[in-house]
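Inputs:
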Amino acid sequence: MKDTTAHIVEVCPRDGLQNERRVVATEDKIALIHRLIAAGARRIEATGFVHPGRVPQMADAEAVLAGIGPHPGVALIGLVLNRRGVERAVATGALDEVNYVVPLTDSFGKANQGQTTAESLAALPVVRSMAADAGLRTTVTVAVAYGCPYEGDVPVARLREAVRAIADTGPDEVAVADTIGCAVPADVTSRLRAVREVCALPLRTHFHQTRLTALGNVHAAMLEGVTVHDASAGGIGGCPFAPGAGGNAATEDLAWLLHRGGHTTGVDVDAVTRAGRWICDVLGVPPRSAMAHAGPFPTSHPPRGPG
Amino acid sequence: MKDTTAHIVEVCPRDGLQNERRVVATEDKIALIHRLIAAGARRIEATGFVHPGRVPQMADAEAVLAGIGPHPGVALIGLVLNRRGVERAVATGALDEVNYVVPLTDSFGKANQGQTTAESLAALPVVRSMAADAGLRTTVTVAVAYGCPYEGDVPVARLREAVRAIADTGPDEVAVADTIGCAVPADVTSRLRAVREVCALPLRTHFHQTRLTALGNVHAAMLEGVTVHDASAGGIGGCPFAPGAGGNAATEDLAWLLHRGGHTTGVDVDAVTRAGRWICDVLGVPPRSAMAHAGPFPTSHPPRGPG
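Outputs:
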């Protein structure tokens, strides 16, 4: 594999936090984002514009964005599920990008966002247009693209058709998301190839560690030329409407893996490990990353040899 | 990737147990092996013939093998580090195979087995000959083939030279082992290709989950045509002389991943998950596999949909 640049989209402030029981203070969310920027994050899903009654952790979306301040070279993303979300996102004046979610199954769509796949696809053109009018990029995440917690396996043909419909609306990027952590590397290869058949747009991955496949899945995606990957500092995360979903791929683990494979990411592994540990302390949960436990290899302080 | 058969070598009774503090009763070790056979294991590293003062968990090697009984179609393996180990292994009359360890660094070799790489290689022909005289296969595991806990990165040229020397002695198989869990999939691809340049023998992998890369590493090996992989039920294991090493790839996780990728292994994921949980209960430690926590996907009992 040739040396290439890989890109990590830091989703800890949104996907990382949204499923945690303890609601984090607004100033701590802002401090987290500052720590992530200091650790090299250049694209950050900072918050979600979702119903505060359904996801209390995201109720302070506007206040978080107001507190981040200008950071040239850093793109901030807001997750949106509908027109109302885009209106709120645009009104902040603080975002570079909205990330719109299209569920690949109606069961998950109804649970996650009260929409079927068709309803979500139907609203995409207006979402795209509202964002474009405000000068924001629109990226689209296909949720449960590898499998659904309610329906199990989802035919690849359905993914191909959904991506074709999404591509027709001309977003800036499409993420093929394993929302629940059921994908294996062989699935990644076959599904990304299927998506490529109908979509020439830039692609992004999103993997969870539910079944410990996330790092291998990213490697499989890199082999397909997909170089942009969501990850969460500390490996926290999971969807409140995706039962059993484990944490996101940990940013520090993914960056270490990519660096060892000859890629650059711009992420400082030690610094993002510390940021992950810090937010986990705030949440009162243990960090889930391998870097937080075993640390990187090689280490600068190997154990003393046997003499 | 075409559908192929993959093979899992079950190392739970040896690599899985050897680093656990609680010494397991001989009858529980025998019961574990019987559970693993019932779950589909057909090649099992049953014990190690090592110094009981250094690895107390393996002190009852002969008694374990005496208690297993005949199981047609199941190959039992004994780990050996020297002539004395082979003598003991042969004397049991219960084994099909000895697995001899060649350390790729002198630092690890002295810590693990009191031998340098050169000393270990020098003893291999006689080990091979003693095993052959007793009708046993000899397989050779190259330890710390991806990196050393004491020396850090190990040049690929050193691996190539060690494997060339091993291949010259004509063993039945060579395992390229990531003893400490530092390999990423890109390393697997490059090192297995380097090994292939000098060795036409069957190859085997051995990965640890220290940095959550084991499943992706196996997938990378499968893409290189290497279809035999060590794994441990419950994901337990680690080397007492490899500081910081995490558990082995869990058999149940690996079997699930391989099945999802279109391969057959003969392993019953649910049964080996139960076997892993059982031995972890005996040890008083939590199982480390994803299957023991999240379970397989798809599940036969999906959560109730949103209605």
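Remarks. The first strand of chain A starts at residue 7 and ends at 10. Chain A is about 40% helix and 15% strand.
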